[in-house]
């Protein structure tokens, strides 16, 4: 396995970006963003073949990623910038007027790295399936990835998409669920229980992998690499990835409270004290 | 669709009874350069999936062609659950969405081909019943371009979809009464051909709009908005007046809901009287 020490320092930097971005505009979604840092860093720095300097909407012969739970835009923007899709300095425009970094990701302002708008939940798996079908038509053997919140699975469209993908052998799709157990109104288990997700996706006809350490970078890379070995074998692939919402900032962990709230000045300093400077803030 | 499926099975995707997923898959297919056409009833092409169209297609500027059959009252016996009369309004409110409602088989066919050359989302609405096929088979369909059917001087009748044929019938009966009606077929509700409408209304000084849709949000609304800004003009509306439909034959429903030839004639006589 490759040495991922430098990527672990990048993870800390991405966490600094997240809390600073939401603090600067007193809005945004730090909790889920912090929990998915390792997934994004693994995907964009290790797993995907992609071309940040020459972004094209069609992404032919590249791997594609779709963020279905668009509210975790801070982690998406930070990792896109730190992968070279746009200048890191642009992170300071997040959620401000005339910015390409809208509250939820969009193609509308032409931000490189974004291929569809998301925010209204439940739509990203369908779009990812469409892109995967397009790749099959184009004889393009690269892979399509998508990320979903666990609360988002309460949307019916997800299950329409899950049924379609399995029924039609969309086996160039690797979806991941950020299984942090929390949503805006509280614990998923209390709001609307998901039941046995592994059994559900298996019953729908997916190949399901479980990762109980979604905040361990090496484990996340391992899961994604294992998923890649299953591509082309007749089933869509699902990774159920346990993460901690708010990971890396102690007071944001163990609660749903920081799903969509920004830290104040004092809280920001408390957070940054737990996240060492690594690659230079924007 | 059956012919396409037979000719190009690899490019035909049967999504099942899952319209939300269909719109998302269509949006995704554009990534990689495909031009997807979706096909289902107008009700399930719009109202049922408005948020999917809004976010994944319109806001994301995806090159999807939403083709909607069975629009309006002429769906007939299935009743109001399936007779959407709000779809033009829903779709024209979406920024960047083109809205087209052709009037017969030939125009629908020409439109279906023409929209493939437009880069961006399109809503193409058509009906179920057999109606006269009177436009040329070899027509050049230009998005956003009104079609002049009859030049006249006393009133402008602007019709779309199934009401175009009824407007032609009304024009013949009005001519017998000595009223010379200019008849315009508006197949594209958005973008509206403002130039053609203003030119005609500038001449006739009054207008009747006719459509198989709610008065709120339809073609008449678009024409009224244009005229109120550019050329305030008496206007009468032949449209469904804030009501759901019901079961019945298409012809019975068009009569009951005031979308028949006689309603256009009555609207013309009323609007001419308002000209003074």
The strands making up the biggest β-sheet of chain B line up spatially as 1-2-4-3-8
Which structural class do the helices and strands of chain B define? Answer: alpha/beta
Strand content of chain A: 5-15%
> What's the overall average pLDDT of chain B, rounded?
97
Along the chain, the helix and strand elements of chain B come as HHEHHEHEHEEEHEEHEHEHH
Instruction: Return residue spans of chain A where pLDDT drops below 50 for at least 5 consecutive residues.
Output: none
Written overview of the protein:
The complex is a heterodimer of chains A (282) and B (276). Chain A is an alpha/beta fold and 282 residues long. Chain A is built from ten helices and seven strands. Chain A is globular, with a radius of gyration of 18 Å. In chain A, helix 5 runs parallel beside helix 6 (156-167). Chain A has one domain (5-272): 3-Layer(aba) Sandwich (Rossmann fold). Chain B has 276 residues and is of the alpha/beta class. Chain B has two domains: 2-125, 3-Layer(aba) Sandwich (Rossmann fold); 147-273, 3-Layer(aba) Sandwich (Rossmann fold), CATH 3.40.50. A five-stranded mixed beta sheet of chain B has the order 1-2-4-3-8, sandwiched between helices. A five-stranded mixed beta sheet of chain B has the order 5-7-6-9-10, sandwiched between helices. In chain B, helix 2 packs parallel to helix 4 (50-59) and helix 7 packs across helix 11. The longest helix of chain B has 14 residues, at 163-176. The chains are: A alpha/beta (282), B alpha/beta (276). At the A-B interface, helix 5 and helix 6 of A face helix 2 and helix 4 of B.
């Amino acid at each position: 396995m490759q040495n991922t020490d430098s990527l672990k320092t990048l993870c800390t930097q991405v966490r600094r970006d997240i809390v600073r971005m939401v603090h600067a505009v007193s809005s945004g979604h730090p909790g889920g963003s912090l929990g998915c840092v390792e997934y994004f860093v693994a995907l964009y720095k290790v797993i995907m073949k992609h071309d940040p300097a020459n972004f094209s909407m069609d992404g032919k012969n590249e791997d594609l990623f779709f963020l279905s739970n668009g509210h975790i835009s801070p982690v998406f923007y930070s990792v896109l910038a730190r992968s070279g899709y746009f200048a890191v300095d642009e992170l300071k425009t997040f959620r401000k007027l005339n910015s390409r970094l809208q509250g939820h990701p969009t193609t509308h302002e032409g931000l490189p790295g974004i291929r569809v708008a998301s925010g209204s939940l439940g739509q990203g798996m369908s779009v990812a399936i469409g892109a995967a079908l397009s790749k099959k038509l184009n004889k393009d053997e690269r892979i399509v990835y998508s990320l979903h919140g666990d609360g988002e699975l309460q949307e019916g469209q997800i299950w329409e998409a899950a049924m379609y993908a399995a029924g039609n052998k969309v086996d160039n799709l690797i979806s991941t669920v950020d299984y942090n157990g929390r949503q805006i109104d509280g614990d998923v288990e209390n709001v609307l229980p998901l039941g046995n997700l592994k059994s559900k996706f298996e019953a729908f006809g997916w190949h399901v992998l479980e990762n109980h350490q979604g905040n361990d970078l090496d484990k996340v890379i391992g899961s994604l690499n294992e998923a890649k070995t299953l591509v082309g074998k007749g089933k869509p692939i699902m990774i159920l990835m346990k993460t901690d919402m708010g990971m890396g900032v102690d007071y944001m962990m163990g609660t749903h409270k920081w799903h969509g709230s920004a830290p104040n000045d004092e809280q920001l300093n408390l957070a940054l004290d737990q996240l060492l400077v690594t690659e230079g803030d924007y | 669709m059956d012919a396409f499926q037979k000719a190009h099975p690899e490019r035909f995707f049967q999504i099942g009874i899952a319209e939300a997923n269909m719109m998302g898959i269509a949006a995704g297919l554009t990534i990689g350069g495909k031009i997807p056409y979706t096909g289902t009833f107008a009700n399930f092409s719009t109202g049922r999936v408005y948020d999917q169209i809004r976010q994944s297609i319109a806001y994301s500027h995806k090159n999807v062609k939403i083709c909607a059959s069975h629009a309006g009252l002429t769906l007939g016996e299935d009743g109001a659950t399936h007779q959407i009369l709000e779809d033009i309004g829903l779709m024209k409110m979406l920024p960047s969405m083109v809205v087209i409602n052709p009037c017969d088989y030939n125009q629908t066919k020409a439109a279906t081909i023409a929209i493939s050359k437009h880069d961006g989302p399109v809503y193409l609405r058509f009906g179920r019943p057999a109606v006269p096929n009177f436009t040329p088979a070899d027509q050049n369909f230009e998005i956003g371009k009104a079609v002049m059917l009859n030049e006249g001087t006393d009133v402008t009748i602007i019709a779309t979809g199934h009401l175009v044929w009824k407007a032609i019938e009304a024009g013949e009966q009005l001519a017998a009464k000595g009223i010379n009606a200019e008849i315009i077929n508006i197949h594209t509700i958005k973008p509206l051909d403002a130039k053609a409408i203003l030119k005609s209304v500038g001449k006739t000084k009054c207008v009747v709009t006719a459509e198989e849709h709610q008065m709120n949000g339809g073609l008449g609304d678009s024409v009224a908005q244009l005229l109120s800004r550019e050329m305030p003009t008496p206007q009468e509306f032949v449209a469904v007046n804030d009501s759901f439909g019901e079961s019945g034959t298409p012809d019975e429903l068009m009569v009951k809901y005031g979308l028949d030839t006689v309603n256009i004639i009555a609207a013309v006589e009323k609007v001419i009287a308002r000209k003074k």
